[in-house]
Design brief:
Shape: elongated
Radius of gyration: 15 Å
Largest sheet: 2 strands, antiparallel
Number of strands: 2
Mean pLDDT: 82
Strand order of the largest sheet: 1-2
Helix content: 40-55%
Distance between the termini: 47 Å
Number of helices: 3
Number of domains: 1
Strand content: 15-25%
Low-confidence stretches: 59-63
Structural class: alpha+beta
């Protein structure tokens, strides 16, 4: 898909930052530590990253 292809209304909702925040909040309720990062991909402009492993490694490194 080229960058100038218009997104459908549903895809626009799914690709929105507010949807990424909503999904990340649900993951946090399940005990998964998350961060949201911006990407250059038109179909995935927001990426939710599981930072649980990174937090554990950082904690060990600081100890």
């Amino acid at each position: 898909m080229s960058a100038d292809t218009p997104l459908s209304p549903l895809r626009r909702i799914l690709c929105s930052r507010s949807n990424a925040v909503r999904v990340a909040a649900w993951m946090r309720l399940d005990g998964i530590h998350t961060d949201i990062v911006a990407t250059d991909e038109p179909l995935q402009p927001w990426l939710i990253v599981d930072t649980t492993v990174g937090l554990i490694k950082d904690t060990r490194a600081c100890a």
